Amino acid sequence: MNDAPTxxxxxxxxxxxxxxCLTGAxxxxxxxxxxxxxxxxxxxxxxxxxxxxxAAVMTCAAIWLYGCLQAQPGIRSGxxxxxxxxxxxxxxxxxxxxxFMTGYCSTTTPLRWFFGALxxxxxxxxxxxxAALTAGACQFRPYWARLAxxxxxxxxxxxxxxxxxSMMERAIYAQLSDLLPSAGWCKQPYGVDIMMAAYATTxxxxxxxxxxxxxxxxxxxxxxxxxTALFVVLILALKKQLLSSFLYPFFTAGxxxxxxxxxxxxxxxxxALGLLTALFWRWAQRRPVAANA
Length: 293
Prior knowledge:
single chain; mainly alpha; 12 helices; about 0% strand
């Protein structure tokens, strides 16, 4: 009989449910506050180098995460591990949420939800390729070889996968150009209807973050404080936010402080997601019962 600890064996489910909801809402509130009240714009990179570096960091973090999947009892199928890694990457980065909000905020057309779903094809293909290539990189035994393979995976994602999927996406949109929604109606300042949809859909990255911590917590070294810090770093890496705030000011035009605020709001939200997940995960754990003397 396998006596390895299960991921959710010591969890108080009501507390965990509260933690999931509050984590998603509070993490999003950072982004909403900076965009809605401080008029901070969303960032856009003009150089491939930051994307390559962020992809390399994400891939190296995914390699470690895949190792945790390999160590998890009951997940013996390589295909299942690849699927779970894909699901964690895609959901942490809000693939379904972004697709829903794209359709929700589009002008009313018969195909608004189709185009919303179509917007998920590019990130889904990217994360599917990342998961499959990461699994291949994990076949190398020496850790330095895995890291080198991670860099190779990042190169493939940036220079092969992304351009290929973008080309396919442009071809589809060109064929359906007459049916495209003309413009979105979700304008600032956001109203209650937009806020409700935005907050409700934070359940996706929040659930993915809690699934991630359930998988990796016992593999993180050190005491709870160190484990929490390492988990925040992991989430930042998987969401490609670990280095973004430091890189963005050097690869965009405009004032440095505005660039820091633009990317920083996403980094803060991602960091809050990881931190709150760790705190609520600890809060949801059952306290061990002391043995009788």
